């Protein structure tokens, strides 16, 4: 991280919008903490997670607690396979984000 930060004028982050074309885990964004940021990523599910955290955090917490209560090996595999099922298309943005976060935290080695 220090290698990247030395090329960024941190004072300008207070006046200008920071653009992050490939947000991923957001390490640089969260390190810099700009006043205003626009993020992007090819992974639509990842962007959905960021949007849900920004816009519907309380609802997301409720959904994550449901996953925590149901957590088991069978439940994990059901959630992992859900995007191959037709009912996946009827999930709300909050439910999709909670699913991704649940899988990220419970899969082997995490992400």
Question: What features would you describe in this structure?
Answer:
The protein is mostly helical. The chain has 2 domains: 2-39, no CATH class; 44-106, Orthogonal Bundle (Adenine-specific Methyltransferase, domain 2). Helix content is 53%, strand content 5%. It has a two-stranded parallel ribbon with strand order 1-2. Helix 2 links the parallel strand 1 and strand 2. The protein is elongated and about 50 Å long.
Q: What proportion strand?
A: 5-15%
Q: What's the tally of helices?
A: 6
CATH class of the largest domain: Mainly Alpha
How many domains is the backbone divided into? 2
Enumerate the strands of the largest sheet in spatial order, edge to edge or round the barrel.
1-2
> What class, by secondary structure content?
mainly alpha
Q: What is the annotated CATH architecture of the largest domain?
A: Orthogonal Bundle
Low-confidence regions: none
Overall 3D form = elongated
- Overall pLDDT: 94
CATH superfamily of the largest domain: Adenine-specific Methyltransferase, Domain 2
Report the order of strands and helices. HEHEHHHH
What is the share of helical residues?
A: 40-55%
What is the β-strand count?
Answer: 2
Q: What profile does the largest beta sheet have? A: 2 strands, parallel
- In CATH, the topology of the largest domain is named Adenine-specific Methyltransferase, domain 2
How widely separated are the two ends?
19 Å
Radius of gyration equals 17 Å
């Amino acid at each position: 991280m220090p290698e990247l930060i030395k090329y960024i004028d941190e004072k300008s982050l207070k006046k200008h919008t920071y653009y992050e074309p490939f947000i991923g885990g957001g390490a640089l964004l969260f390190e810099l903490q700009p006043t205003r940021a626009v993020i992007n990523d090819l992974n639509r599910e990842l962007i959905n997670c960021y949007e849900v955290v920004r816009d519907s955090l309380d609802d997301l917490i409720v959904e994550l607690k449901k996953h925590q209560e149901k957590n088991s090996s069978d439940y994990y595999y059901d959630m992992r396979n859900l995007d191959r099922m037709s009912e996946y298309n009827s999930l709300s943005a909050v439910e999709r984000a909670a699913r991704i976060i649940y899988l990220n935290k419970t899969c082997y080695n995490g992400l």
